[in-house]
Amino acid sequence: MNGKMKTAVFTDIKQVEIKECEKPSPSGNKVLIKVDAAAICTWEQRVYTGVNKVVFPFIGGHEIAGHIEAMGDEVNQDEWSVGDQVVVGVTLPCRNCYYCKTGNEQSCEHFDHSAHLPGLPYRGMGGFSEYLLVSPDCMFKYSNAAPEEACIIEPVSCVVHSVETARVSLGDTVLVIGCGIMGLLHTAICTKRGAKVIVSDVNEERLEMAKTLGAKAVINPAAEDLKQKVEELTGGIKAQVVFDTTPIPSVVEDTFQCVSNAGKIVLYSSIHPAEPVLFDPNWVHGKSVQIMGTANSNDRDFMRAAQMVSGGVIDLKPFISGVYPAENIKDALESAIKGDKFRNIITF
User: Where is the signal peptide (predicted)?
Assistant: First the structure.
């Protein structure tokens, strides 16, 4: 299979170019995916602005929806067909280490955002390319959604992993701090899991959106005392689970004030800048508080996220802030880094 393809390449800080390179051909157990849409995550925004350090040139893009264009002769054709709509994920784990072999691909010992994936001219996750070579174990079928929606299945999978890490149960009170896309997805999924969700953010418009996704109460900490309001809403018990979806170090301390005895704190977001946070270990010990971290997702999370979106359980249309052809990726990135968008989508 001959031909060329377009790839959006970060060449330096705040520099991105559309380059032409060889279109890969699938053989063996590889599949050629035509990328239909890829979302710009905060991670790529930080590459663009220089916060995330990478070696240039670098190809970003890890929230990917496409369809199968061709398959190698060893691909299981009982499971896969040309034309199948798929999301691509879990491409960076090694699938060989202890963590991968125990079903924790999200915590792979060798997880590398700058891996050099087959068929690409440069290092990186590769979704900002017209085509990708993918192993079948990194593809998940979807239906009943446009590619611009389906590429957001990857964030859904990460939130599925987060919510299940916390084991949110029927009747729990859950506090979600932050109303970015990840906070709002936590709100929607925890609600569907049978929890009473309280959401905190300083953006009134996004608090209103949280209500439409099932939040039973919202708090603006710029106008109300967060701890006091959570106590009032829970009869003094506070929240069984607190999700911090913000990158702000000082907000971590707020979680300590709002979690119940025997409760769980989940640090979902990476913290920027990464600063130490003080806490009282005797309080953690005496109140049986669990502090957890979660990042990324695994095959099981991805499969269930794709099923939820395909089945209409989660509607991702409200999270599409803008759609841009690949040639306008710089405009999409400049728009995204303003901080008022959910997801800008690149199409090929």
Answer: none
pLDDT of residue 272: 83
- pLDDT tens-digit map of 143-158: 999 999 999 999 999 9
Element (H, E) at 131: strand 131-134
Residues 6+ apart with CB under 8 A from 162: 186, 243, 266, 268, 294
Mean pLDDT value across residues 318-342: 97
Q: Is the dihedral of CA 102, 107, 111, 113 positive or negative?
A: positive
In one-letter notation, the amino acid at residue 250 is S
pLDDT of 1 above 90: no
Burial class (CB in 10 A: 0-12, 13-18, 19+), 28: exposed
DSSP-derived letter for residue 156 is H
What integer pLDDT is reported at residue 275 of this predicted model?
Answer: 87
Q: What DSSP element (H or E) covers 133?
A: strand 131-134
pTM for this predicted structure: 0.96
Q: Are 135 and 24 in contact (CB under 8 A)?
A: no
Location of each CATH 3.90.180.10 domain in the chain: 4-152+316-347
From the number of C-beta atoms within 10 Å of its C-beta (0-12, 13-18, 19+), residue 97 rates as middle
Looking at residue 274, its pLDDT comes to 84
- Token pair, residue 188, equals 């929607």
Q: What is the CATH number of domain 159-293?
A: 3.40.50.720
Q: Which residues contact 173 (CB under 8 A, 6 or more apart)?
A: 195, 196, 197, 198, 233, 234, 237, 238, 239, 240, 241, 260
Q: Could you give the CA distance from residue 186 to residue 245 in angstroms, rounded to a whole number?
A: 9
**In b/e form, how buried is each residue of 302-313, taking b as 16+ CB within 10 angstroms?**
bbbbbbbbbeee
Q: Which CATH class is domain 4-152+316-347?
A: alpha beta
Over its C-alpha atoms, the chain yields an Rg (Å, rounded) of 21
Structural tokens at position 312: 């209409």
Angle made by CA atoms 84, 88, 89, in degrees to the nearest 5: 150
Residue ranges of the chain that CATH labels 3.40.50.720? 159-293
